[in-house]
Write a structure and sequence with these properties.
CATH architecture of the largest domain: 3-Layer(aba) Sandwich
Largest sheet: 8 strands, mixed
Helix content: 25-40%
CATH superfamily of the largest domain: Type I PLP-dependent aspartate aminotransferase-like (Major domain)
Distance between the termini: 37 Å
Structural class: alpha/beta
CATH topology of the largest domain: Aspartate Aminotransferase, domain 2
Shape: globular
Length: 362
């Protein structure tokens, strides 16, 4: 585990603004998408119908009270502890702009928008770099004691590591804001190790996204769970009416009991599909392919010799995967694979075999 403090611009560093959707835009639009971590077959028909029904109210300004109350009830919290946002990405911008912090630290490899937002707000950002040799596990002692903002994902994108809730809670300190990105927690069976709903961890801020499980990336809806003072500071940094009426309708629907039951079922199916993918990848061990693990999210991080070339060969074979070198702490040999159904996984594994064979003249 290494600590690194990049310069504000960090020239020559990884492209923090690169995301998986870049792999499937333009000439990649016809590829089988294993680059974006949005659940396939979503949004479901009932959710599309519910969102469509809200369109008759577009002449009125959005009223987020019902959705906010529904999210609060879902987590057993008062509404004063909930802030609705235009996706979790907006929440990172609000945190960077609204909170008065001196030494922010981001635990990497993880989703790069938190660091990008902090840099854009003028902060110098420290990094705690987790290592593959440690299974990308976090040792709380690696986080500088004077860090007054710590950002960590759980389960972490792209490593798929699920950190124990107790380990993350131990990072809390007086005067420190602890931001835990739980954008993929609803894809974990039972949401074990979740901190959402906890009020006993000082300075805790939990971010949730509804775009991954429900296929709402184009609608932009997420939320923040935090103490009322922090919620108030973030809310004052938001523009008026930041969440659209259709997004509010989706938020209310996605935290209802029916939706929670459907998400729980999907989480178990994803876990089974992930086991199948990991088992298939193990067959390429002789070629140097290694899956980081144990994976607990709806994606798997894989180390592949000559990964950049293999990724390009996979594109030629019809598959888009997420490059890993834009995540601090990873290099070109790392690829992230979204978990898909059996047929898609089997097709991908056949393509991977061909891509590896092309890379090996023998």
């Amino acid at each position: 585990m290494d600590t690194h403090t990049p310069t504000p611009t960090d020239p020559g560093g990884p492209d923090l603004r690169h995301h998986g959707d870049a792999e499937v835009r333009d000439d990649g639009s016809a590829l089988v998408d294993l680059a974006v971590n949005v659940r396939t077959g979503t949004p479901p028909a009932w959710l599309r119908k519910h969102v469509a029904a809200s369109l008759g109210s577009l002449a009125a300004y959005p009223d987020g009270r019902a959705a906010r109350a529904a999210v609060a009830a879902r987590h057993g919290l008062p509404v004063e502890r909930v802030l609705l946002t235009a996706g979790a990405a907006e929440a990172f911008v609000l945190l960077a702009r609204a909170l008065k912090v001196r030494r922010p630290v981001v635990v990497h490899p993880q989703f790069t928008e938190p660091e990008a937002a902090l840099r854009d707000a003028g902060h110098t950002v420290g990094r705690v770099l987790l290592r593959a040799a440690d299974g990308f596990r976090l040792d709380p002692a690696a986080v500088p004691e004077d860090a007054d903002l710590v950002v960590v994902g759980n389960p972490t994108n792209p490593t798929s590591v699920l950190h124990p809730a107790g380990v993350l809670a131990s990072l809390a300190r007086p005067g420190r804001t602890l931001v835990v990105d739980e954008a993929f927690m609803d894809a974990v069976p039972g949401e074990r190790e979740a901190l959402a709903g906890r009020t006993d961890v000082p300075g805790l801020v939990v971010l949730r996204s509804l775009t991954k499980t429900w296929g709402l990336a184009g609608l932009r809806i997420g939320y923040v769970l935090a103490d009322p003072e922090t919620v108030g500071a973030l809310e004052r940094a938001q523009p008026l009416w930041p969440v659209s009426t259709p997004a509010l309708a989706a938020a209310e629907a996605c935290v209802a009991p029916r939706a929670l039951a459907e998400a729980a079922h999907a989480a178990h199916r994803i876990a089974a599909d992930r086991e199948r993918l990991v088992a298939g990848l193990a067959e390429f061990a002789d070629a140097g392919v290694r899956a980081a693990g144990p994976a607990e999210g709806p994606f798997v991080l894989v180390r592949v010799p000559d990964g950049a070339a293999v990724r390009h060969r996979l594109r030629g074979l019809g598959y888009a995967v997420r490059r890993g070198d834009t995540f601090p702490g990873l290099g070109e040999e790392w690829l992230r694979l979204a978990v898909r159904d059996r047929a898609t996984t089997e097709g991908f594994l056949r393509a991977l075999r061909r891509a590896l064979a092309q890379a090996d003249p023998a």
